[in-house]
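cron nightly-structures :: item 1 of 1
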Amino acid sequence: MSQDYDVIVIGGGHNGLVNAAYLARAGLRVVVLERRHCVGGAAVTEEIFPGFRFSVFSYVVSLLRPEIIRELDLPRHGLHILPLESTFTPLPSGDYFATWADPDETRRELYRHSPKDAEAYVDFGQLMVRMAMAVKPLLGVTPPDPTSLSPRQLRGLLTLGRHFHSLAERDLYALYKLMTMSAADFLNEWFECEPFKATKSASGVIGTFLGPRSPGTAYVLLHHYMGEIDGVFRAWGFAKGGTGGVSEAIASAARRFGAEIRTDAPVAQVMVKDGHVQGVALGDGTEIRAKTVSCSLDPRRTFLELVDARRLPEEFVAAVQRYKFRGSSAKVNLALDTLPNFTSLPGAGRHLRGSISISPSIDYLERAYDDAKYGRFSRRPYLDIVIPSMLDPGMAPPGKHVMSIFVQYAPYAVEGGWTDAQRGALGDAVIDTLAEVAPNIRSAILHAQVITPADIEQTIGLSEGNIFQGELALHQLFFLRPVPGWARYSTPIEGLYQCGSATHPGGGIMGAPGRLAALQILEESGRARAAVGGGRAPL
């Protein structure tokens, strides 16, 4: 039995759903095939323990593109993002460092630690906003191919050249530094307060197998800085209902435009004939036909598992095999009987409504990375913690709480493999680290879930558990992501496209890869204006 569509989208993660929504909005018959029982990929909300709902994998929202929210009218479909307005860093000395929504309050806090840094803070913030504005246009364009002599590609390169040439000289120098320096070195040029520098530089190592002193991490810092909520840069937020609320809103928009979404529908093979895609075969043998297939899975899953590699150029396969994943992050989800009580700032204050960062110094982060370099998880890891139930009480039973802990470093290729004993030891290391600054945490825990990179790979299909579908390293960005010569979402197989985080502009709950891939598909069929403008093109 076979079924026919205009487009098949493989994978119901948020990028796949965005891709499907834009394609359906242009009038195409679209079906999304998701192997799990729910859509969302890493952006899902599930009730792991009775009454406690968790953003099981990803947990904060910042990078979701405003144009996607606007063009798909996601608030109409239930999207509601609650700002995380502070970052609280408890220190081993019994003191703390915090940043707040009010810049003046943050400056006063910085002054308490370093008057010099308080003076530099305003200039630094202005610079980072200018840098984000300089790079922001790249998030909305398909990368031009610098090796092509096509007039369209040359025009794209010329447009980018003009854009960067328009930057002030000081900003161009600063951007070059951000693209090449380590987060630690870049921040050292501005500040002296260790917990401030460490907490900032932690954004430069999230999702990478790099330390804060590794070159290239300053760009990753900027990548996370480009997030915005309601036009405010560097505004992190929590989606009401968990990150699954983001995926459900996008799925609802896609359905409104006519897309069909199937769960429990694992794709076993992409069918190819004479260099052209024909459709897909499901695990149960069902064949679904389409002349266009858009795959949101990572390159390894796509080209080394779903596609017969013999149908691809050898140099392309070799490039995919060289693509770096190196997952380094774990997640610990806790159901709590009561809130953590931090020694440095006791009580259920507003500091529990934002992010809590265990990042006392750059040396602390670098030592955590040292463990990972030699195949061990960090015995004293960097932790990025959110208590969603403080913002959205519906995430837990009355009087109880959920805690979401992002953990770095936990290498995929851990020495001895990720056994149950290793998983338990990682969980103990996380709780021990947290207990040093919040001693009541052990007695507060009702249930705990520890998710390793191997678990992430097994559950949601991200190779090596990399949360960005591949490292955000300089050699894997823009026209080099995922493979040189194939950064424009198309592939060597006619009609097969990629639309996941392994394509430009990369990972995070962003949606940009899904949108740009859809526009590329539609441009080749003359329908791009309908997708962005809202009209429905004729079939």
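cron nightly-structures :: done
Residues 325-460 form one domain.
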